[in-house]
Write a structure and sequence with these properties.
D-Maltodextrin-Binding Protein, domain 2, alpha/beta, TRAP_DctP_sf, 13 helices, C4-dicarboxylate ABC transporter substrate-binding protein, DctP_fam, periplasm, 46% helix
């Protein structure tokens, strides 16, 4: 985002925020309020609980749907005080937040969604470099929103690795392009918003995703086979606060916010799991999506592929350059 854009956003938001009560924090998110998914519903839970636990002394006003900052602008917007809090979609910023994107360099990895969330909590508590990566950009992590376990949604059945030979697979980030090539398939870089059409028009044959997100983006309307590939859970979002705003809170309010961040992860995980159960039932009963098993060992064998190892080594080099002791982290990321 350019300096001019940041200044314009700051001015626009100042006009909005100027009408808010002095004890109102502002939250900016790309999520639409009417999405009715685990992300938006858990955020509303967070907002409601914050008001309840502060006895109404403090509230959070949410600006939904990217109305203040688009998803790609959020880190800089928050750092510059364009909103007190917001969602940072971490995988979109692997160079800006390499440590906090560790999981994105290690696909497949063995942790599920709850374990990924706990890993992020543990790493922030045990390794100051994770906190410093954010604080150096005037940001503070309030909580974490891991994504679900990912599989592969395809237009045709896939029973083993041989069936993926020559397939075109939607790709993004660092790990997936290398892993897809190791599968013998062709990675195709496509945005989330363009993937529906790409599947519909057979520009791509498959896309890595979880059931909840597949239903949310309606990919399951145009691709009817979900392959249970053991990619592990992806890490998604950091519920982030402007560091100056966080420090300006009184001790009691800061304690409420810290505890709420811990409780949020539990509530969000429960919502996500319930939503996945609902989607799987819809797939079986109404939407006609087949869930197919996949031989785990065929995927995990690809970890030794030169390209996959190169991506992992890239993260290790970046992490060690910060002074981070990486062995404890790698122990959770390796099969």
């Amino acid at each position: 985002m350019t300096r001019t854009t940041t200044s314009a956003l700051t001015l626009a938001f100042a006009l909005i925020a100027g009408t808010a009560h002095a004890d109102t924090l502002t939250y900016i998110t790309y999520k639409p309020q009417g999405a009715n998914d685990a992300h938006s519903r858990s955020l509303q839970w967070f907002v409601d609980k914050f008001a309840e636990r502060t006895g109404g002394k403090h509230t959070i006003e949410v600006f939904w749907g990217g109305s203040v900052a688009a998803v790609g602008e959020t880190p800089e917007a928050l750092a510059n005080g364009v909103g007190d809090m917001g969602d940072i979609v971490t995988p979109y910023f692997p160079d800006q937040f390499p440590l906090n994107n560790a999981i994105g360099f290690f696909i497949p990895q063995p942790m599920d969604s709850r374990e990924v969330g706990q890993a992020m909590v543990d790493w922030h508590a045990e390794y100051p470099e994770f906190v410093e990566e954010l604080s150096s950009q005037n940001l503070h992590a309030v909580s974490f929103r891991p994504l679900e376990n990912y599989g592969l949604l395809c237009k045709d059945p896939v029973e083993n690795m041989a069936d993926l030979e020559g397939k075109r697979v939607r790709s993004y980030g660092f790990a997936y392009p290398a892993l897809i090539e190791a599968m013998g398939a062709t990675p195709v870089s496509i945005t989330t918003s363009d993937t529906y059409e790409a599947l519909e028009r057979s520009i791509v044959d498959c896309a890595p995703i979880g059931p909840v997100l597949a239903r949310g983006f309606k990919y399951d309307e145009v691709a009817k086979y979900y392959i249970e590939m053991p990619f592990g859970a992806s890490f998604g979002h950091i519920l982030t606060m402007n560091l100056d705003s966080y420090k300006a809170l009184d001790d009691d309010t800061r304690a409420v916010l810290d505890q709420l961040g811990e409780d949020y992860m539990v509530e969000y995980a429960s919502m996500l799991e319930a939503e996945e159960t609902r989607v799987l039932e819809l797939w079986q009963e109404e939407l006609g999506v087949s869930v197919l098993p996949f031989p785990d060992e065929e995927l995990t064998a690809l970890i030794d592929h030169q390209g996959v190892q190169a991506v992992r080594a890239e993260w290790e080099d970046k992490a060690e350059a910060t002074g981070l002791e990486i062995e404890g982290i790698l122990a959770k990321l390796r099969f």
